[in-house]
Amino acid sequence: MDLAEDTRMQIGKEEINVKGTYVWVNSVRINDKIFIIPGKMFKVAQLKEEWYEDVRDPEVIIEVLKTSNSRPDIFTFFERFPNIKPQFSYHMEWEENAVLPIRTFDYWWHKQIVGETRNRVRKAYEKGVVTKVVCFNEELALGIANIFNETPVRQGKFFWHYGKPFETIRRDMARDLDRSEFIGAYCGGELIGFMKLIYADSVADSVQFISMIRHRDKSPNNALMAKAVEVCEKRKIPLIAFGEWREGSYAMFLMSNGFERTSLPRYYIPLTDKGKLILQLRLHHGLKGLIPLGVKRRLIDIRSRLYKGRYRRFCH
User: Fold this and answer.
1) At residue 150, what are phi and psi to the nearest 5 degrees?
2) What are 253-267's pLDDT values in tens digits?
3) Where do the domains of the chain lie?
4) CA pair distance 166, 160, nearest whole angstrom
5) CA-atom Rg of the chain in angstroms
6) Closest by alpha carbon to 239, among 196, 286, 266, 206?
7) According to a count of CB atoms within 10 Å of the terminal CB, is the N or C end of the chain lower?
């Protein structure tokens, strides 16, 4: 297949977030879309804004990537909401995501959540929690920094944002402001939790959702979720995406708030002989992908215990 005549390619570098830290990686701009190519042992290319943009012509992209000086070993992309039926015959794997379908706030309140969740939202309001959409400014950034620096351990592991300089936090939170919205949870005038939503077509992607542990008795997370549903109904956004589905207390919280476990088709296309071997050996998810689920759960439990012991004074 010949490259389309109007295809334009530009080699460069792009800044991406890796476990809370921004790093520069190789990239290829193909027409108006940027594809990042991270990796050391092997390189996997993907659309930088894959949650917000579609890969409409994968055959053209594949051919261009094969001719790039930063030639990746594998190219991956997935079907975006709401059209998540497999459309291509490439090697495909199902990727589990947490999604909240939204009809109306009333439907969510009466049909999608359980009585305990409704009680938690009521309790938040009774204890003085106020939720509202807020503009990003210096005051909000300072409140977010206070939340991030409350404890170095969250969900049994080290919290990436703990101890970051204020200017770094402000810069990170200011990304994508043209398509973002912040929802804050306040008590006594103090920011005790917040959610950052990024809008992409018919989806609101929750990229930040966190509250202070010392205020968890006020159920700020439930109040924030209720406000997010209200906001999305007004915007006529039918879905809130919450990222990769994870088991344990995380999944229990999501299910109690109406989220569903939804499978997205993700494609993996080898571009080199090395890429073919990686797929055959199932190494494209890294060594972690080879660990049996039972062993992984045991390792997570051990890590959680170690962090709790090390940071005992922060654990409530």
Assistant:
1) -70, -40
2) 999 999 999 999 999
3) 9-93+265-309, 98-261
4) 14
5) 21
6) 206
7) N
**Cα–Cα distances in Å, from 95 out to 79, 175, 190, 245, 268?**
10, 26, 38, 9, 12
What is the distance between the alpha carbons of residues 52 and 204, in angstroms, rounded to a whole number?
10
- Give the CATH number of domain 98-261: 3.40.630.30
Selected residue with higher pLDDT from 6 and 290: 290
Token code pair at residue 167: 């200017």
**CB contact at 8 A, 108 and 229:** yes
Q: 265-299 burial, b for 16+ CB within 10 Å, e for fewer?
A: bbbbbbbeeebeebbeeeebeeeeeeeeeeeeeee
**What global pTM score does this model have?**
0.85
> DSSP letter at 72?
-
- Per-residue pLDDT tens over the stretch 279-308: 998 888 876 766 776 776 676 667 667 656
**What's the DSSP call for residue 299?**
H
Both tokens of residue 252?
Answer: 């229990």
pLDDT > 50? residue 1: no
What does the alpha-carbon distance between residue 130 and residue 272 come to, in Å, rounded to a whole number? 54
Q: Kindly list the distances between the CA atom of residue 20 and the CA atoms of 8, 34, 167, 168, 283, in Å, as whole numbers in the listed order.
A: 32, 21, 14, 11, 24
